[in-house]
Amino acid sequence: MPLKQTTRDKLKTVSTATITTALFKRGLRRQMIQEVLPLDPAKPTMVGEAFTLRYMPAREDLNPISVFQDRGHPQRKAIEECPPGAVFVIDSCKDARAASAGSILVTRLQVRGVAGIVTDGGFRDSAEIARLAIPAFHRRPSAPTNLTLHQAIDTNVPIGCGDAPVFPGDAIVGDADGVVVIPAHLADEIADEAVEMTEFEDFVAEKVKEGRTILGLYPATEEATRTEFAAWRKDKGR
Amino acid sequence: MPLKQTTRDKLKTVSTATITTALFKRGLRRQMIQEVLPLDPAKPTMVGEAFTLRYMPAREDLNPISVFQDRGHPQRKAIEECPPGAVFVIDSCKDARAASAGSILVTRLQVRGVAGIVTDGGFRDSAEIARLAIPAFHRRPSAPTNLTLHQAIDTNVPIGCGDAPVFPGDAIVGDADGVVVIPAHLADEIADEAVEMTEFEDFVAEKVKEGRTILGLYPATEEATRTEFAAWRKDKGR
Amino acid sequence: MPLKQTTRDKLKTVSTATITTALFKRGLRRQMIQEVLPLDPAKPTMVGEAFTLRYMPAREDLNPISVFQDRGHPQRKAIEECPPGAVFVIDSCKDARAASAGSILVTRLQVRGVAGIVTDGGFRDSAEIARLAIPAFHRRPSAPTNLTLHQAIDTNVPIGCGDAPVFPGDAIVGDADGVVVIPAHLADEIADEAVEMTEFEDFVAEKVKEGRTILGLYPATEEATRTEFAAWRKDKGR
Amino acid sequence: MPLKQTTRDKLKTVSTATITTALFKRGLRRQMIQEVLPLDPAKPTMVGEAFTLRYMPAREDLNPISVFQDRGHPQRKAIEECPPGAVFVIDSCKDARAASAGSILVTRLQVRGVAGIVTDGGFRDSAEIARLAIPAFHRRPSAPTNLTLHQAIDTNVPIGCGDAPVFPGDAIVGDADGVVVIPAHLADEIADEAVEMTEFEDFVAEKVKEGRTILGLYPATEEATRTEFAAWRKDKGR
Amino acid sequence: MPLKQTTRDKLKTVSTATITTALFKRGLRRQMIQEVLPLDPAKPTMVGEAFTLRYMPAREDLNPISVFQDRGHPQRKAIEECPPGAVFVIDSCKDARAASAGSILVTRLQVRGVAGIVTDGGFRDSAEIARLAIPAFHRRPSAPTNLTLHQAIDTNVPIGCGDAPVFPGDAIVGDADGVVVIPAHLADEIADEAVEMTEFEDFVAEKVKEGRTILGLYPATEEATRTEFAAWRKDKGR
Amino acid sequence: MPLKQTTRDKLKTVSTATITTALFKRGLRRQMIQEVLPLDPAKPTMVGEAFTLRYMPAREDLNPISVFQDRGHPQRKAIEECPPGAVFVIDSCKDARAASAGSILVTRLQVRGVAGIVTDGGFRDSAEIARLAIPAFHRRPSAPTNLTLHQAIDTNVPIGCGDAPVFPGDAIVGDADGVVVIPAHLADEIADEAVEMTEFEDFVAEKVKEGRTILGLYPATEEATRTEFAAWRKDKGR
Q1: Does the model's ipTM exceed the 0.90 cut?
Q2: CA distance readout (Å), E42 to E132, E211, F154
């Protein structure tokens, strides 16, 4: 089930930091994909449902260069099947010694309307991918062809990515701090809560810049803060 | 397809070291499960076909202690379905911070006639498991319940284990040096070749103990060595 | 506040695996000291309240060999102050490239009636320490004097040890699987619950050895299992 | 005791590379905070006395989101107590899987006149922090709230940060190569020596750019070099 | 034997990603220097023959600051002996806790016409080196003087760098994805093949941007693709 | 220059822990080979001069199984050239994913009178090697043939082993805590000092077992301790 458009729109306005706090309040502490960062930190926030690809260690006899001759090869097939608006998430076993994908495949995803791509390995042609419009997240650049190390084995199954659990359809959000996985059934409520939290954080940031202490302000333990925030929202029309 | 009994018998007499050399000659360099060792190095060599279990990172809301109430839970189901004579191989994402299994499940596998168990994580109740007859291999002891970290997600699919590719049905062999994975279609020929290599290595070991140089002997670059080996085999009836 | 004698006695009869499950049920997932194992896995279970020592990285000018001339040196002082019955827990910053302590200090702890010693670094004189009666747990043997790397800085403050939080007075339990930290206020109830769990696990182990399937038995989802277990306890007088 | 203004001014003109060499000459080899880099490498050099915060692993029951309601929470208190001109240094146990702090707290430090912030973990809101005027150094961006992993436990005690020993009051200097810790009692003399060394390095750099060999020039083993350098300084009025 | 100028020119127009694929086809899977990236990813591609320097762990008594007084010190000597057009490759044992070199030595290499510098450790003065014209590749910035950790021991011998084998005279190519090592005897044919592959990849990239599916196009399993590519080359005059 | 027999005899009676302290007093802090342990911790202490072998990453085309046909292959040649009484030390780049050597080569060393073997990688046939009389030290068992990963490139050159510098001729001592490297020119004086230190440690150990506090005893800051020790030595005839 795809993300609601309103949820998608909300998630684009909040940070992964805020989302992880909302998840933490619900007892979910492992939803951040660890050690994965954007190739271009200046891109807008990435949002989409997870479409997954699972890699396993490549056995040499099963992974000559000729395997890509097969139109049904799971990696190439996945690239063509990932729905527009989704985020393509690859379980590369946290191993960036060979590439998870390169610029041609990532370009194809972009053209197909895919919302972003994430691997817990690395991309080749990283400079070109960074210049594409589609947001991409990895551990580090890695030139060697993925056949050196990875064999694509399964499409759209539950996977691990950077120690986070990823189920197909989970909401994936990525910004300069990395990528977070929101369980599908929580996407709407987390989006709502994160938008509210962001309102308050914006208010706090403004006050702190003006010289206010954080004590009593963040969190808003004083009644005065809560009153002031209400007035601020009204004033700003937020 | 199960291993032939003759192949199984041969593999029990050879070492993982010899097998990796035979695989290396065929261009297979990644078949050793890395950093995994026997809980009891004194056990006989473990041999069996791979039956696999895949773990992914556990999401907290999906993994309360009550999940094991479900008779269909993939981990418990896998324990009951693993065929006698097979080796139970778990992809624990190389993470031993929580247990892959404990002594009760491993005892159940033993009673069911399973040939061994391997994880690239760790076992709890490790002292008890070491005392069982069934050979077990892991990275290190790990007490925390597997729900802390691992969610069983798939049974008998291709997996990675300690950076080695494991396909269901592959021949798994384990000794004091660790565990090697022989692709199913090569099991018979590797078994034959490894038995032959072992004959020669035994001959060489004997000669080296007697004081012979390795030059010309190992490998047998001198005709005299090959003649002497032929005589030795005849003499020993091997 | 020291552990009650009854709690201490109970904890000596249960495993760290069982304890981690009881802690997991209470939402505590990080209480196992990671990657730390006994020097002698055959020793009885270690139980005691935590007495802590904190190391920080050694600055060379502050750590010549002469510092031990000072009777007030925190390491030596801690050795003399650790209460009998306590477990001496060292935060070595998970760094075993130099020793946390050696056989003379550990012998002194034993003579003073200390219940055990744990470091997330390593011990020197490891073979001698393994032969002492006092249980000791570390990552690996490490010969270099601790001044090479560690400076003792604080005694009996809250510390991290192997990624687990340790507060002075917490109940520390160690066996062949490693060392677990029970928050002080939970020690009594965890001890009780773990004893009960162990009763059931012993029953299950017996049944599994007799050939029973784990489904319906472990956990005891079937009424019949619970009835049978009640009878077994009565029968065994447990 | 705060840094002398003259010392502070001198340290702002020299590099961490030069300082580590001056420390090396005094037998101090471990004063570089390892694997920590600036969020914005283009900022001016950071200089200030260390004010420290110690984290330990977070125990779940002690770290619900509500702890920040407490005005005395060590992390929030430390933020308000760190003196203007100081550098706020956090011992995050080298663990960047959760945030050490976020943009609101770092902004508050900036407003309060703090000279910089360093953690051997990671910051959330990293893009915003990079845009602040205050220099910040970490291992990598990390979105999850620090309660996920870290519990603030002690303020202004000696700590380890990235394997370097840090005592409150030590002089902290950070540039594009990372952060170095100068023991407080050496700050003045190291500042003087580093300024002198920098004069010579600038001279050498100029000569090397002009095509001079490094042999005899760097270090200045030839009398001619020393004479030339003296003339160069005179000429430049340095 | 230096690289042919034509080979050098060709290698400057292709990517490390393309080269690793050409090497993979020849059974060479380990030629990428792992975890090493450019200080300035915007520089043109680096090409040159390997001139090597081997570091070993520094013994303190052999590595006082005075060793550089010796004109024959292997590090300084290597800097003066590296041929113009070569790439200076340092085996720093993958350890970036101290510097492999700093800006003065790298400037000297640039003035001498050296084509680039690579270490599997780190550089000090990293911001200055990034601004030089000469391309430089490392793991991360590292301020401490190399004497802290590294002792230069051998010049122009076979070494390991980032897990890749490097023989003097091998062709070294570096771009934003990192650095690849082409065995000397394969440099000409790899250059030719990579240029051809790049032609095709450019064609594919153009078609993918136009909306074409990758199936049948990449690789060119359909006759139509091959015909179209031939026409495209003719048209473009490539 | 071989070790004096008297020095060799003395070193056999002292521990690596004591030796590292004697080295620490001389400013040598990095002489312990890190993370390397005996295959059989019960063996007597290993002592001998270093004879070294350097491995580099194996390039696939240079390392087919047939290379051992060459009598001049550096690994095989080194085995035959290592002097009796020496310790064979291998720089395996701290990589145990393939074997450094196996039981046949180690047996040959034993027959030739070599005093021991050390690698910072791993041995295959580890159970057999553990049963040989010759002491052997490694990181962990590793079955794959060394050609998978390692290429022997140099004999008896200075190397790194487990982050320690090893020069040919250095005195190598190994026990249950691991292996330490004594610079050749210090071997005699370290042996003398370590024997003296061991006398005192034996005295202290006896007193501590009798219930004495360590304060004033260890180190012997009280005159009474020194007098008592003198009497103890006289009494024991040591």
Answers
A1: yes
A2: 12, 28, 38
